[in-house]
């Protein structure tokens, strides 16, 4: 007598198997129920934490068929323990344990202001020491022509300069064009001040305030956010303390600093 299966569900109605994917840090997935898309930053027993491009974090349960990977349904699973991942510097580079700082190159990177220099040091400091690149700051772009003349950049002493709010047609833009050469590179970011290059979410605000023309930008920001206006240095410390890695900075700044480091350290 022929035996029949008790399962009478048609094959096309049976749930299809989906791949299991380890929730490795950096894996970008989407949670279809909420539409939240982000990179895995942490996976613990039963949950996974995602970070979206604005720096917002959400925690989701590790449920079967619970995520989309490149549009395909997958089941995220906790990664198996294995070799430790290489440590990273704040800039995202692979850390070199025990590496000594290189003797300073003749080349330099100049940035526009002390706050700019402190931010670059915090994120790229480890990389710059290994490469032997010194960062100094300008008191103002007006001083740039005399600084470049005195520095006399050449094949073995390249000069890179980062300028705030470098917009075509402005006085700053014309000065930058006048000193740019084969061995001197001037680049800029679109932000009025380096404060604005820190992602608002990292600082704990929704957005950087719009400051009316004629009002000092830092003072206007402090007023709008309810911070103490009398001490912008205190405000900057608060902002700088919120920066832990390159993920806390806007891409427009990241690209320009990396460009300058590559330029200054390029072989003669």
Automatic annotation (TrEMBL):
InterPro entries hit by this protein: DUF3097_C, DUF3097_N
DUF3097 domain residues: 20-79, 108-265
Superkingdom classification of source: Bacteria
Region of interest (Disordered), ranges: 1-20
Name this protein carries in UniProt: DUF3097 domain-containing protein
Species of origin: Streptomyces althioticus subsp. attaecolombicae
């Amino acid at each position: 007598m022929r035996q029949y299966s008790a399962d009478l569900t048609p094959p096309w109605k049976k749930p299809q198997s989906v791949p299991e994917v380890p929730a490795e840090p950096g894996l970008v997935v989407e949670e279809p129920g909420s539409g939240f898309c982000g990179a895995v930053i942490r996976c613990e027993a039963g949950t996974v934490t995602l970070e979206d491009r604005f720096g917002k974090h959400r925690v989701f349960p590790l449920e079967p068929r619970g995520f989309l990977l490149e549009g395909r349904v997958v089941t995220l699973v906790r990664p198996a323990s294995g070799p430790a991942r290489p440590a990273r510097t704040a800039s995202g580079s692979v850390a070199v344990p025990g590496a000594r700082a290189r003797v300073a190159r003749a080349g330099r990177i100049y940035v526009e202001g002390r706050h700019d220099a402190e931010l670059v040091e915090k994120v790229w400091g480890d990389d710059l020491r290994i490469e032997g690149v010194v960062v100094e700051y300008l008191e103002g772009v007006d001083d740039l022509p005399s600084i470049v003349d005195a520095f006399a950049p050449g094949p073995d002493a390249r000069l890179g300069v980062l300028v705030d709010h470098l917009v075509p047609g402005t006085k700053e833009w014309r000065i930058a064009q006048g000193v740019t050469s084969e061995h001197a590179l001037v680049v800029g970011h679109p932000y009025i001040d380096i404060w604005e290059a820190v992602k608002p979410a990292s600082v704990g605000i929704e957005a950087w305030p719009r400051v009316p023309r004629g009002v000092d930008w830092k003072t206007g920001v402090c007023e709008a956010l309810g911070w103490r206006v009398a001490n912008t240095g205190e405000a900057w410390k608060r902002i700088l303390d919120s920066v832990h890695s390159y993920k806390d900075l806007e891409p427009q700044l990241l690209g320009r600093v990396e460009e300058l480091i590559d330029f200054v350290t390029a072989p003669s």
